[in-house]
Structure formats: C-alpha cells, structure tokens
TrEMBL record:
It is a multi-pass membrane protein. Keywords: Endoplasmic reticulum, Membrane, Transmembrane, Transmembrane helix. Pfam families: DPM2 (PF07297). One of its GO terms (biological process) is dolichol phosphate mannose biosynthetic process. PANTHER family: DOLICHOL PHOSPHATE-MANNOSE BIOSYNTHESIS REGULATORY PROTEIN (PTHR15039:SF11). This is Dolichol phosphate-mannose biosynthesis regulatory protein. InterPro entries: ABC_BtuC-like, DPM2. Pathway: Protein modification; protein glycosylation.
Amino acid sequence: MALSDRLVGGAMLAIAAFVFTYYSIWALITPFFPTDSPIQAYFPDRVWAVRGPALLLIIGVGAVGSFVGYIMQKEAAKRRERETQRRA
C-alpha cells in the first residue's frame, strides 16, 4: 500500500512540476519573444494565460460554495428532524 501511495504522490508531484514550469514559461518568458518566433508555436495565445486560471478560480469557488451550501442544508434538515423527535 505504501509503495503505491508513493508512486501516486510522485506522479502527482511530477505533473504539478511540469504544469508549473510550462505555465511559468508561457506567462513570464514568452512575452519577451517576438510573435513570429517558433517558440510561440508551443504555447496557446497569451490571453489564455489569464483566462484559464480565472476560469478555474470561478469554477473552484463555485464548487466550494455549492458544497458548503449542500452541507448547510443537510445539517438544517438533521436539526429540524431532531427537534421534531424531541417534541413528539
């Protein structure tokens, strides 16, 4: 079990390091290259360097908000059920 956990963790770390490096080069270094440079062919349009993370942030905040709202509704239903059992 521990070996598989280490493999999964190592793979996740390698993927995160690759994504971080790729995004950092894309957002911080490619603006200094001319637009007709062959390096620009390896990266999407620069506008997506801002839109992508913004979209992920909006989706993430929405997912967290939905989860919190769902949990609050479930807790309120449990609380109502307990109160009706106490009264009966």
